[in-house]
Amino acid sequence: MTQQHDDRPDFTPYDGPAGGWGSVRSLADIIPREKNVAQTSAELLRQNKPDGFMCVSCAWSKPNPPHPAEFCENGAKATAWEITSQRVTPDFFRRHTLSELRGWSDYRLEEAGRLTHPMKYDAASDRYVVAPWEEAFEAIGARLKALPPKSVVFYASGRASLETSYMWQLMARLYGNQNLPDSSNMCHESTSVGLKTSIGVPVGTTTLEDFDSTDCILHFGQNVATNSPRMLHQLRDVHKRGADIIVFNPLKERGLERFTDPQNPLEMATGKETPIATQYHQVKAGGDIAVMTGIAKWLIEQNAIDHDFIATHTHDFAAFAEKVRATGWGEIERESGLTRAAIERAAAAYGRSKAAMAIYGMGLTQHVKGVDNVRMVVNLMLLRGNIGRPGAGLCPVRGHSNVQGQRTVGITEKTELAPVDKLKERYGFSPPTEKGLDTVEACRGIIDGSVKAFLSLGGNFARAVPETELVEDGWARMDLSVQIATKLNRSHLIPAAGDTWLLPCLGRIERDLQATGPQRVTMEDSTSVIHPSLGKVEPASPHLLSEPAIVAGIAKSFLPPNPAIDWDAWVGDYALIRDEIAAVIPNFFARFNERLQQEKGGFWKGNKAAGREWDTKSGKAEFLVPDTLNATGFSDGDGRFRLLTLRSNDQFNTTIYGYSDRFRGINGTRQVVLMNRNDIARAGLTAGQTVTLATDAEDNQDRRVGDLIVVEYDIPDGCIAAYYPECNPLIPLSHHAEESHVPAAKSVPVRVVAV
């Protein structure tokens, strides 16, 4: 696929803060482009409000009461993007073949607008053609009836509601499999695995209120200004109270340096900026275990630990302490890329705190040793008793808006995480107990041909995963591809050998009118709060169906009738689906509908570890000892770089809103590789030169991405950076976190090849 960029891209460094007038100008550029300025402006006032809709972008928590404008720059882009006036009609596909569209960029495909009709791929013309919904459901059902259930994958992107997700997982299990990969497999599965074994819950322990009383934040591998900009309000307030915010990240990210609040007239008028990080340490990609070992070493040697908490609430501290004491500072410095003095300065700040939080993102989870990274964060918190009290705890920053909630209602390939016993009792069938396929395993199945059908509840799976070329080749040999979507993307352009269906659904911001009236849906944010969401915008087309209606239509087409399940009634009244969720998952959703009515700002689902109840094998929080200081899973070598893939400021996941990465000073292109000055010189390159990246993996398979412009950037020696998903073809499918199978996209072994 060709990725276009300007003939003369601009690499002028950006001097402004996160937020501020730069944010305003960015929105002034993107919102008019979608040709729906008035409606977008009106909807932004409803965004993330109790009686409004929840942002279709990130999962960051929503304060109660909300700010007057409870949206960020990227959230506003996502809203404008969804309610655009531009349309992809049947005439669009009459004018463009899929072969042609595969040459379009990710940006251009989605910028074409909202899908309007259900479509079927016609191989003779290489085009999508209109087909009635009834024909689509009947044909999909016929294919599924003819296939072995274990050969079918039911993928879910992270934005589908709790109601839809519950129906989706129930449909898969009724069919006979747990092949339920989701976007969590690509990002925070390392969190789910690491936290579950360490503290007994697979999610973070903090709430938004903890930011009000914390006096120290350890912040690892998360770019707040791009991935969850509304968090800048909390970080700004924490800094203003005089608390320490200690950042560990390979790149200097502007949102972690300084921020001007666009909602503060005085700051906007005067250009006043609030610093964010009190310490900023540029750790090598994959060097976080070493950093955390150094901090733990200092704390233990200085006796700056909570002995009472450790004795009462933890297990195996002695083994951890012995390992830490035996690790030398020379090894810690070499693997982290930081000096002993820098690490000890961070440790001292943490050691004098009274209540500390640990915030982290995919900079920790997307490594071969990503689960060990997560467990080391837990170890640091346990050392000082910083779980289960105000202002303290673990705060993994989830990505898509309901990715955490989907897991809560059963979107998982793992039996132990699903309510299978309750499903059996409620619906009178025997749910499968054999582990299903996760994302990496689904990709393997697509490549080797064992996966025959792929149904996708949103998302852009083929573009988001590693080993892109082999996955696309395998995709074209499948019997069935079903894509439920709002906009066109790359995954829709790879037709299966059998049937390929493109089914357009309502967006979350649109009015969802069913038999009992307008419907609302729910989702769970990063801090385990359940929020309602009500769309009011006129749908992009009268031919759209809601996600629950599409799932029900598919389910009825191939599953035998079940007297305990009335799919049509559920579609007519989503409150009935919530009643089902409450019955099957009462520990989190008791009185679901009632609580939505009573608790207007959303309700917290609860968290055992936050109450210092440890659902682990030992009955206590576990100190778990890592076996290495290097999270990359490979050794350094002459000419080998650690590639970390990034998102730009004009991007959310695989959605590209434009070609401006303002904070990094990259405009007009995404075809770049960021290198530091010394590495550029050592490689015999010059800034502005065009190069190719080649994977340097032990399987010796040729994986290359070319046409990349060298940009000089402040990044640690031996580390380079480039954009996701453009560089996904460089990631071997085997290069993933050992226990969680998360693709290790934050440390890929590559070589830079001069053109």
Give a structural overview.
- The chain has 755 residues and is an alpha/beta fold.
- The protein contains 30 helices and 33 strands.
- Strands 5-4-17-16-15-6 form a six-stranded mixed beta sheet. A six-stranded mixed beta sheet has the order 29-31-30-33-24-32.
- Strand 18 and strand 19 (517-518) form a beta hairpin.
- Helix 7 crosses helix 25 (547-558) and helix 13 (288-301) packs across helix 17 (340-351).
- The protein starts with 17 loop residues before the first strand and ends with a strand.
- The model has no long low-confidence stretch (mean pLDDT 95).
Offer a concise description of the structure:
The protein is of the alpha/beta class and 755 residues long.
Features:
globular; single chain; 6-stranded mixed beta sheet; 30 helices; 33 strands; 755 residues
Enumerate the strands of the largest sheet in spatial order, edge to edge or round the barrel: 5-4-17-16-15-6
- How would you sum up the global shape? globular
Mean pLDDT: 95
Tell me the β content: 15-25%
Rg to the nearest angstrom?
A: 25 Å
Q: Structural class given helices, strands, pairing? A: alpha/beta
Topology:
Blueprint: E1 18-19, H1 20-33, H2 37-44, H3 73-82, E2 87-88, H4 90-95, H5 98-101, H6 106-111, E3 114-115, E4 119-122, E5 127-130, H7 133-146, E6 152-156, H8 162-175, H9 189-199, E7 216-220, H10 224-227, H11 231-240, E8 244-248, E9 258-260, H12 265-270, E10 274-275, E11 279-281, H13 288-301, H14 307-313, E12 314-315, H15 317-326, H16 329-336, H17 340-351, E13 356-360, H18 362-365, H19 370-383, E14 393-396, H20 403-408, H21 420-427, H22 439-448, E15 453-457, H23 461-464, H24 468-475, E16 480-485, E17 499-504, E18 513-514, E19 517-518, E20 520-524, E21 529-534, H25 547-558, H26 567-572, H27 574-584, H28 586-589, H29 592-598, E22 603-604, E23 621-622, E24 641-646, E25 651-652, E26 655-656, E27 660-661, E28 666-667, E29 672-675, H30 677-682, E30 690-695, E31 704-712, E32 719-723, E33 748-754
Parallel strand pairs: 1-9, 2-3, 6-15, 7-8, 7-13, 8-11, 12-23, 13-14, 15-16, 16-17, 24-32, 29-31
Antiparallel strand pairs: 4-5, 4-17, 9-10, 18-19, 20-21, 21-22, 24-33, 25-26, 27-28, 30-31, 30-33
